[in-house]
Design brief:
Layout: E1 4-10, H1 14-32, E2 37-40, H2 45-51, H3 57-65, E3 68-73, H4 88-98, E4 103-109, H5 122-125, E5 129-135, E6 143-151, E7 154-160, H6 165-181, E8 185-190, H7 196-209, E9 216-221, H8 222-231, E10 238-241, H9 243-254, E11 264-271, E12 277-283, H10 300-312, H11 317-332, H12 351-359
Parallel strand pairs: 1-2, 1-3, 3-12, 5-10, 8-9, 8-10
Antiparallel strand pairs: 4-5, 4-11, 6-7, 11-12
Helix pairs in contact: 1-10, 1-12, 6-7, 8-9, 10-11, 11-12
Bound molecules: 1,4-dihydronicotinamide adenine dinucleotide and magnesium ion (MG).
Residues 13, 73-76, 89, 92, 260-261, 282, 285-291, 297-298, 301, 339 line the site of 1,4-dihydronicotinamide adenine dinucleotide.
Cofactor: Mg(2+); Mn(2+)
Enzyme class: oxidoreductase
InterPro entries: IsoCit/isopropylmalate_DH_CS, IsoPropMal-DH-like_dom, Isopropylmalate_DH
């Protein structure tokens, strides 16, 4: 049977960008003989409107069964006043939590045609292609004790950075597997100089590295890592880091490359029966209510998220390369959605025109 893909377009520009992904999927079916069992369902506000919850149990069950899930975006002003328990983003959080997606992949890739969009000089970023692997389910955002407590005559706010060996080991393994598929170079970032969790992190990553002797492993303090990312990002290939440092470093790396409309992501969990990890792919951007319904959204972030699914869930690395090359070509030809336009006088293309150009 064909590999299965569950599509959850969501809210705002989610359905608009997902329509362009559907064109790409149809093209792969027609021209490359690559067929998927695609099903579509609701998440976020659109699910709330129908079911009264942002993710129905049936949808959750489908996500657990699928070889991969591709999500558009959730949220919007219409849902801002909903009770916390049914807010659109709770649908996304439920998916991440119940699928136990502990490894968050955030590529920072700079297409040559867009290098002038970066806040950095062209030669520092042109051709950049790095991947940050962020631990997503543990660390200081979840560790206990946490809270605001009375202490003497004042209050104290407490969070705890806590990592077990097995939590470090599983995300490290996913980063090494990724490094094996890329350029066999991995830099792990923590602050072992001042943090106990950092000492353990470095020890466990080094131990896991023994299983991947071909991968060139290095370690760096995360503050230096932030500096190096801006000074000379091309020295890196895969960067592995914890939840907190990964939050900061991945946002920093993302902005090396320009527009939010270009950034894909993947969140991976434990291997399934087919040997591939449980996986949720989604663009980094939100539902962009300011441009929703106007055909202005850039579909590339969502299309690149599908390219990641081809590579990491469907073992179709060459087809993912083909798709990325098409995007590169379209950008080199000067095709631009509004978010990619710097100068006046150039007419932007619509969401659908961008999708059509990539298919062509
Ligand atoms: P946003 O990412 O939706 O938009 C930020 C800015 O970037 C806007 O000006 C928007 O027009 C622009 N933009 C974003 N994606 C674009 C694209 N593909 N093409 C062209 N321009 C694009 O973030 P914002 O405005 O903070 O949040 C809007 C809504 O989205 C909120 O309800 C928020 O909760 C939700 N959200 C959902 C996320 C998700 O589903 N993973 C992530 C972030 C926000
Ligand atoms: Mg962040």
């Amino acid at each position: 049977s064909n590999p299965s893909l569950l599509i959850l377009p969501g809210d705002g520009i989610g359905p608009e960008v997902m329509a362009e992904v559907r064109k790409i999927i149809d093209w792969f079916g027609a021209k490359r003989g690559l067929a998927f069992d695609v099903s579509e369902d609701l998440v976020g506000g659109s699910a709330y409107d129908v079911h009264g919850v942002p993710l129905a149990d049936e949808t959750m069950a489908k996500a657990q069964e699928a070889d991969a899930v591709l999500l558009g975006a959730v949220g919007g002003p219409k849902y801002d006043d909903l009770d916390f328990s049914v807010k659109p983003e709770r649908g996304l959080l439920r998916l991440r939590k119940e699928m136990d997606l502990f490894s968050n992949l955030r590529p920072a890739q700079c297409f040559d045609a867009l290098a002038d969009f970066s806040s950095l000089k062209r030669d520092i970023v042109a051709g950049l292609d790095i991947m940050i692997v962020r631990e997503l389910t543990s660390g200081v955002y979840f560790g206990e004790p946490r809270g605001i407590f009375e202490e003497g005559n004042e209050r104290v706010g407490i969070n705890t950075q806590r990592y077990t060996e097995s939590e470090i080991e599983r995300v490290a393994r996913s980063a090494f597997e990724l490094a094996m598929r890329r350029n066999k170079k991995l830099c792990s970032m923590e602050k072992a100089n001042v943090m106990e969790s950092g000492i353990l992190w470095r020890e466990v990553v080094t131990r896991v590295g023994k299983d991947y002797p071909e991968v060139q492993l290095s370690h760096m303090y995360a503050d230096n890592g932030a500096m190096q990312l801006v000074r000379a990002p091309k020295q890196f290939d895969v960067i592995l880091t914890d939840n907190l440092f990964g939050d900061l470093l991945s946002d920093c790396a993302a902005m090396l490359t320009g527009s939010l409309g270009m950034l894909p992501s993947a969140s991976l969990g434990a291997p399934m029966a087919n040997g591939r990890p449980k996986a949720l792919y989604e663009p980094v951007h939100g539902s962009a209510p300011d441009i929703a319904g106007q055909g202005k959204a850039n579909p590339i972030a969502c299309i690149l998220s599908f390219a990641m699914a081809l590579r990491y869930s469907f073992d179709q690395g060459a087809e993912a390369d083909r798709l990325e090359a098409a995007i590169e070509q379209v950008l080199a030809d000067g095709v631009r959605t509004g978010d990619l336009l710097a100068e006046e006088g150039v007419a932007p293309v619509s969401t659908a025109q961008m999708g059509d150009a990539i298919v062509a």
